[in-house]
Amino acid sequence: MTNKVTTHWKGNLQFESDNPNGKTVLMDTKPEHGGHNSGLSPKAMMLSALAGCSGLDVVSILDKMKVNISDFRMDTYGKLTEDHPKYYYAVSVEYHFYGENLEESKIQKAVDLSIEKYCGVMEMFRKFSTVKTSIHYHNK
């Protein structure tokens, strides 16, 4: 299967990239690099893609397990190399679950399945980065 994304220059340092489903996203850079901060930076989008990929897995698995959560968020951190080309050499994904009487063993299983089996973006990150994960439960 081949995916195609078209990325179109919108002027200055802003680019608009499409998605096979027709949605678009803006990319830009910081003013100190000549941009206007009008979109996500490409490297921030990589961290967002990692969290989004795993998050989709986790929510889908929890739904199939009939596990109730009131909220779920992921904080994703990436450490860049000092030299060019700069890339993430270390990444950390923190999974935060909120709710009453959280079923920790099932949540752990859902996260593990995403990390170890389903999340292709995480597998790609492992090719160039050390990836660490942690789960945090916030019972009300």
From TrEMBL:
InterPro entries named in the record: KH_dom-like_a/b, OsmC/Ohr_fam, OsmC/Ohrsf
A Pfam match: OsmC
SUPFAM superfamilies referenced in this protein's UniProt entry, alphabetically: OsmC-like
Name of the protein: OsmC family protein
Organism: Formosa maritima
Taxonomic path: Bacteria, Pseudomonadati, Bacteroidota, Flavobacteriia, Flavobacteriales
